[in-house]
Amino acid sequence: MSFERPAFHTILIKGKRGNLFSVLYSAGGKKPNPTVLLLHGIPGNEQNEDLAQELRRKGFNVLTFHYSGCFGSDGEYSLANDLEDAETVLDFILNDNKFGLDKTKIFAVGHSLGSFVCGQILSKRKEIKAGVFITPCNIGRIFDIKSESPDLYRKTVEFLEESRLWLNGVKENQLLKELLKHKNDYPLESIAKQISTKPILVVEGTLDEITPPKYHSRPFINALKQQEYEYLQAVTLETDHFLSDMRIELAESVCSFLKKFS
Question: What is the CATH number for 192?
Answer without folding.
Answer: 3.40.50.1820
